[in-house]
Amino acid sequence: MKITDDKLQKIALITSLIGLVGLIAFTPTVEVREVDIKDIDRGMIDEEVSVKGVISDVAQSSSKTSYFLTVNDGQAQIQLVIFESQVAEIESRNLDIDDFKNRKVQVVGKVTQYNSQMELILSGGDSLRIVN
After folding, report:
1. Is there a single domain that holds both residue 58 and residue 91?
2. Full domain range(s) for residue 12
3. Residue 81, Cβ neighbours under 10 Å: how many?
4. Are 115 and 54 within one domain?
5. CB-based contact 57:70 (threshold 8 Å)
6. pTM of this prediction?
7. Are the beta carbons of 57 and 69 closer than 8 angstroms?
8. What CATH number should be reported for the domain holding residue 125?
9. How far is CA 111 from CA 43, 87, 117, in A?
10. How many domains does the chain divide into?
11. Could you read off the pLDDT of 55-114 as tens digits, one per residue?
12. Closest Cα to residue 69, out of 40, 29, 98?
């Protein structure tokens, strides 16, 4: 059997379509893992996780573009970094970053390390929610 350019093109198209359908079908099953803050360690760097806790402190960077929130779950605490673009997303929902202080929240963020301390980088403006 001779493979012509036309047949090769059809095979590539069908394979691509099967791959796309597979991605669409399995993407919703990928969930962010909820963890306790005390369990976050260096082995989780670059992993996206979800934590719940109370915002005990809100600080703004010296450049006034980013915020640093301390999330405390009663057993441990971690710094949450919110960059300028995410601040704009949060403010577009008619919320102010200071409104989160002393409120229980759920946060989705990427685990990073800065100056030997574990931190969370907020995934997006909708990744910080007040919960009851």
Report:
1. yes
2. 1-30
3. 18
4. yes
5. yes
6. 0.74
7. yes
8. 2.40.50.140
9. 9, 19, 10
10. 2
11. 999 999 988 889 999 999 999 999 999 999 899 898 888 888 998 999 999 999 999 999
12. 98
